[in-house]
């Protein structure tokens, strides 16, 4: 049975097909020691149906200041979107504005309705608490009008250290016949999972690490009103709804992010891994 642990040099090497896969030709906009692509929601939905997506938000941007393993794999993602209204405002402050915020939770409904009549596009949902992904599967399939979500798996929180669980996750994905994989394991963690194990899931053509999207599609967590998102207060809405789960992301990480952006504007920012 393959070892669940993969050495960092194995994780960071691009797979053989990476060199031949066409990159989406959108401008890179620097964001601390990473970048986002200047891509609109319409362009992403229309043009991107194969490859690796990353939706970058503030919490992940701060993890990239502390986690060299995560930072080392960032260039392996084909499209990186600005998944935060605060980050969108930051791109404007830095003088390099992107067209719009493109969040994973907004993108996924557009994605599945775009592909509702495409029989070659099916999705496996990997992540969420037990029973939540099944609710999301039922809701999405009802909207699409066919079996679009073809399987789900809710791993244990400590799945990396649970003997055999990663093999079970991969086996479930492969057995489903899905062509796209939505991974909801938390920012940074889900991206590392994809890079480590994608070679073992050859049927997957589109990789979607979309975090809390499973909760939204299940109906167990309500989206904020549109005006809250547009004015950049979605973080406050989520913090009020889930104070314990969101405290670290919004209270601990956002002030240092704003300070780092100011340093970038002034030319004082230094990549910790350069």
Work out the count of structural domains: 1
Alpha-beta content class: alpha/beta
Mean pLDDT: 88
What overall geometry do the principal axes of the alpha carbons give? Answer: globular
Provide structural commentary.
The chain has 274 residues and is an alpha/beta fold. The protein has one domain (8-266). 43% of the residues lie in helices and 14% in strands. The protein has helices at 8-12, 41-47, 58-63, 68-72, 85-93, 104-114, 132-144, 165-176, 189-197, 213-218, 226-230, 234-241, 243-252, 254-266, and strands at residues 28-31, 34-37, 51-56, 79-82, 123-127, 149-153, 180-184, 206-209. The strands form two sheets. It has a six-stranded parallel sheet with strand order 4-3-8-7-5-6, with helices on both faces. The chain has a two-stranded antiparallel sheet with strand order 1-2. Strand 1 and strand 2 form a beta hairpin. Helix 2 packs across helix 6 and helix 12 runs antiparallel to helix 13. The N and C termini lie far apart (37 Å).
What is the topological layout?
Elements (H helix, E strand, L loop, with lengths): L7 H5 L15 E4 L2 E4 L3 H7 L3 E6 L1 H6 L4 H5 L6 E4 L2 H9 L10 H11 L8 E5 L4 H13 L4 E5 L11 H12 L3 E5 L4 H9 L8 E4 L3 H6 L7 H5 L3 H8 L1 H10 L1 H13 L8
Parallel strand pairs: 3-4, 3-8, 5-6, 5-7, 7-8
Antiparallel strand pairs: 1-2
């Amino acid at each position: 049975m393959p070892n669940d642990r993969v050495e960092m040099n194995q994780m960071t090497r691009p797979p053989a097909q990476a060199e031949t896969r066409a990159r989406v030709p959108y401008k890179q906009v620097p964001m601390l020691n990473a970048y986002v692509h200047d891509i609109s929601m319409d362009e992403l939905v229309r043009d991107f149906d194969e490859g690796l997506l990353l939706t970058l938000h503030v919490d992940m941007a701060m993890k990239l200041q502390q986690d060299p393993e995560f930072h080392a794999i960032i260039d392996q993602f084909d499209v990186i979107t600005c998944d935060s209204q605060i980050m969108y405002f930051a791109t404007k402050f830095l003088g390099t504005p992107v067209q719009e915020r493109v969040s994973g939770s907004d993108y996924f409904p557009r994605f599945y309705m775009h592909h509702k009549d495409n029989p070659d596009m099916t999705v496996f949902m990997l992540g969420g608490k037990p029973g939540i992904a099944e609710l999301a599967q039922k809701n999405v399939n009802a909207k699409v009008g066919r079996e679009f979500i073809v399987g789900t798996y809710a791993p244990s929180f400590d799945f990396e250290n649970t003997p055999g669980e990663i093999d079970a996750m991969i086996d479930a994905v492969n057995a489903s016949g899905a062509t796209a994989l939505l991974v909801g394991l938390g920012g940074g963690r889900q991206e590392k999972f994809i890079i480590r194990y994608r070679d073992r899931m050859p049927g997957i053509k589109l990789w979607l690490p979309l975090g809390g999207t499973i909760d939204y599609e299940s109906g167990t967590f309500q989206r904020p009103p549109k005006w809250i998102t547009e004015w950049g207060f979605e973080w406050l809405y989520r913090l009020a709804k889930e104070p314990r789960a969101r405290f670290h992301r919004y209270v601990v990480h956002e002030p240092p992010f704003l300070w780092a952006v100011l340093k970038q504007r002034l030319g004082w920012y230094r990549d910790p891994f350069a």
